[in-house]
Structure prediction request, 105 residues.
Amino acid sequence: SSQQNSQPATSSINLNPLLGVAPLGPVPLSKENMYQLAMSEAGFHHLPHPSDSERIRHYLPRNPCPTPSYYQQVPPPQADSLDYFSKLSTETLFFIFYYMEGTKA
Prediction:
């Protein structure tokens, strides 16, 4: 019976969950933190759509026709890379956008 009395009594307390995250209590956000919070909230409100992750379709000519062998028969390698498109003129990009739907241009 003397051993039972020597054990300390246990008790429970209620702790504010915020103190588990910020033990010193709430601290006002800096200007940079406010900007980060605003950008995070903007990103949350503009989540990507499933169509944003669709695979890019490779260009397939609609009306293929035979051409002489001295003309290029297949698109150049890396022709679908962003680096390739960044080297093209605006007029060429408009042509690609109009006639080659579904490419990265």
